[in-house]
Amino acid sequence: MNPHHPSVQQRQQAVREYLKEGFPVSITAKQTGLSRKRVYDIANRDNLPFNRPVTANSNTEKSIIEMKFAGFDEETIGAVHRMA
Predict the structure, then answer these.
(1) What digits encode the pLDDT tens for the residues 13-42?
(2) Per-position b or e across 31-57, b if 16+ CB within 10 A of its CB
């Protein structure tokens, strides 16, 4: 392995940090040099958010709005939808 590449543990830690900060899987994969599948594997293993984009008028957007009006806090809504 090229000595300039970070170790596996460093890349996994970078994945955790990117996802916790709210970056989507695609950007996290590009920034860490890992495949999206590997980032999803790490996220699933460590129960981290996926941070998928929410498109207008989607079921996810409607669900988030309903939960917000029902009084759920942002942390709970994020946990339900796997978002940071």
Answers:
(1) 999 999 999 999 999 999 999 999 999 999
(2) ebebeeebbbebbeeeebbbbeeeeee
